[in-house]
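Entry details:
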Amino acid sequence: METITTPPRTELLKRAAELGPVLRANAQASEDRRQLSEETLEALGGSGLLRLRVPRRYGGYEADMRTVTEVLAELARGDGSAAWTASVWMISSWMVGLFPDAVRDEVFADPDVRISGILSPGAMATPTDGGYLVSGKWSFNTGAQQSDWNVNAAVRPTPDGQFEPVMVLLPMSDLQVIDDWHTVGMRGSGSITTVCQDVFVPAERVLPVGPVIFGAHPLQQDPAAPMWRAPFMPIACTTVGAVAYGLAIAARDAFMERLPGSKITYTDYTEQSAAPLTHLQVAGATVGVDEAGFHVLRTADLIDTKAASGEPWSLEERARARLDLGATCLRAKEAVEVLAGASGGSSLYNSVPIQRIERDVKALNLHAIMHPDTNFELYGRMACGLEPNTQYI
C-alpha cells in the first residue's frame, strides 16, 4: 500500500484543464457509443483524478470537497458525460472507503479502480450463511459497464420484521447488464440497468446506509481523515452539483467561441456581437453561471470547514445542501438555455457543442436527487416548521 501526499489543488486543476481538449474531441464518440470513449477513459485514468476520493493509504488523494468540486466543474467544461461518470466513480470510491479493511484492501489494490454505484435501493438482501443472497435491479447505473465494482443500495430484513437500507458491494462480473441507455441527454455516461439474482455477497461487503446518511460512520477508515467527516448527502449533492456548474461554464465557453463572425439572420446585424440583445443575453447568462457556482461552492466550503473543526451538522444545514444543489441545477439550466437560444439554427448540428450541453444540463435537472423543485420543497417545508419528508438529507 502506497501512502502519498495529496497534490496541490492548483496541480489537480491543471490536470483537469489539460484533459479538456481530449474530452471535447471525444464527446461525440462517447455519445455515439453511449458510454465513454476509450480515449476519454484512458485520459481520465492516466490523469490520476479518479483517485480524489480514494483513501491515502491505498495511493489515493483524499482531496477536500472544494478541490473535488472545482476539478469536476473543469471536466464538465470538456464533456458533461465524462464529468458525470467521474463524479459517480468518486462518490462510490468515498462510499467503499467506509467498508472494512479487508474489503478496501481488495478493491483499492488498484488506486485507479472504477466503482459505480446507485443510492436508490432496488434489491433485496436475504440473510444466508456468511452473508446475503442479493436479487434485484438497478436502473441509471452510470458507467457500470466500464467499472470494476458496483456499490449499490438494497434492503435487508431486521429482527423486528422491518427492513433497513444497506449498500452491497459486488464485482461487475456478478451483474447482468441490460443495455437500455437510449436517451437524449448524458448519452455518453452509459447509465444502463444492471440485474442480479441470488448473488452471494459476503457479510463484510454489506454496509448499513443509515449511519452513512446521518454522518455517524462506523469509522472503519482512518478516524483522523477529514474526508469522511460529513453526512453523505451534502457530499453527494456537492459532487454532482459540480457537473451542472461546469456545464454552465461550458455553454458560455461554447457560445463565446462561436460569437466572432456570427450574424443575426434576417436582421441588419452583420455581427451578432454588436446587438444589444446579445449583450443582455451574455450578461444574464454570466450572472446565472456565477450564481450556480456560488451555491455549489458554498456547500463545498461548508463541508471542508466542518470537517476541519469537527463541528456537527444541523438538520437545517443538511437541508440547505439540498437547497444549494437545486439552485445550482436551476441556475445552470437557465444560463445554458439563454445561450443555446442565442446560438441560432446552426447550433442544431451535432458538431456544435452547445446543443449537447443543453441536453445534458436538462437531463441533470430531471435527476431525482437534483430536481430543483424537490430540493426547494424539502428546504421550504422545514423552514416552515415541518419535518423532512425524506431520509435522504
Residues 276-309 form the longest helix (34 residues). The chain is about 50% helix and 15% strand. The chain has a mean pLDDT of 95. The first strand starts at residue 115 and ends at 118.
